[in-house]
Design goal:
The protein is globular. About 19% of the residues have low confidence. It is mainly alpha-helical. Helix 2 crosses helix 3, helix 2 packs across helix 5 and helix 4 packs antiparallel against helix 5. It has five helices and no strands.
């Protein structure tokens, strides 16, 4: 009897693992992207390993192709995303946001 229960448990476990929903990549925190891109735009520094995910997100996910690279739409998507960081909405930081968008406007 215990062997039957063990086999049923294993079968349901394997079946459950096969039918699990796929895991999707999570969005990177907009404030992290804002901070890393501000550093890259201002000084040309890489931002180090802590900025790898943020820059990959900026140059990978926040890009519009329709069917070719669309710079104006990409700039708007990037601006809207970075604006969701509360710190980017201060007047003193508006110039930084504009600098990021202007610097990377035509870079897919």
């Amino acid at each position: 009897m215990k062997l039957r229960v063990l086999c049923a448990t294993l079968a349901f476990g394997v079946l459950g693992m096969m039918t699990m929903a796929p895991v999707h990549a999570q969005s990177v925190d907009p404030c992290t992207v804002y901070t890393c891109m501000a550093g890259i735009s201002g000084s040309g520094a890489s931002g180090g390993p802590g900025c790898t995910a943020a820059t990959e997100y900026f140059f990978g996910v926040l890009v519009v192709f329709d069917p070719y690279f669309d710079a104006p739409d990409t700039a708007q998507v990037r601006r809207n995303y970075l604006a969701t960081c509360p710190g980017s909405n201060f007047e003193s930081n508006a110039a930084i946001l504009n600098s990021i968008i202007t610097t990377w406007y035509a870079v897919p």
